[in-house]
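Target chain:
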Amino acid sequence: MQQSLESESHAGADGALQVLREFIDAGGYAPGDRLPAERQLIDSLGVSRTSLRKGLEALEREGAIWRHVGKGTFITASERHDVIPAIGQLSQQVTPVQMMRARLSLEPAIAREAAANASAEAVQSIKLVEQRAASAGSWDTYEALDDEFHRTIAEATGNVLLVSLFDHLNGVRRAVAWRQVIRKVDKPPADHPSFGEHTVLVAAIEERDPVAAHAAMRSHLNSVSQRLFGD
């Protein structure tokens, strides 16, 4: 029975994904366009909320959409999103060191743009995620909140293309195996270096200092790289 339910759930998610793709294609949506709210999509497409959300998650992993809590779901790629290598394919070709180099190329620029363009509401969102990350009760929780922290900074730029680039990069980063990372404790210690680095970064964004924000993000990522690889 359990296997049957799981099969039905999987089929529902696949069906919702196909229906979503057809809906987007038929609607002529362009990059930056916002999709209807979930409730409208459920009614229009005749799918369950669970199946719809799984379909949206699949499109987000592919880099076709990005979602912002409180604002909606936006198109980030045209129907030819297959011209970009799939995340799984890229993750097989990228080493962790190469991934950090890519982050160092993109994320300081994102921080600079966030400092120049973030609204007061966006800054508060960044600060809230920073605080939640600093009180995480496990490494898994911290890493999820760290992801959210960096994505919230990308969202603060107000630039859908930068958010899309960040999502694609971060999707590959999550898929890369970090087997060399060994945790000696169950959760980040109170003096975990990233906490202070995050604080400096948030302060630079809040002070609307693009140069300082760029430098703070670069310093933070260099510090992470040093801890991971000793380079």
Notes: The two ends are 52 Å apart (CA to CA). The chain has two domains: 2-83, 87-229. Residues 1-11, 77-83 have pLDDT under 50 and may be disordered.
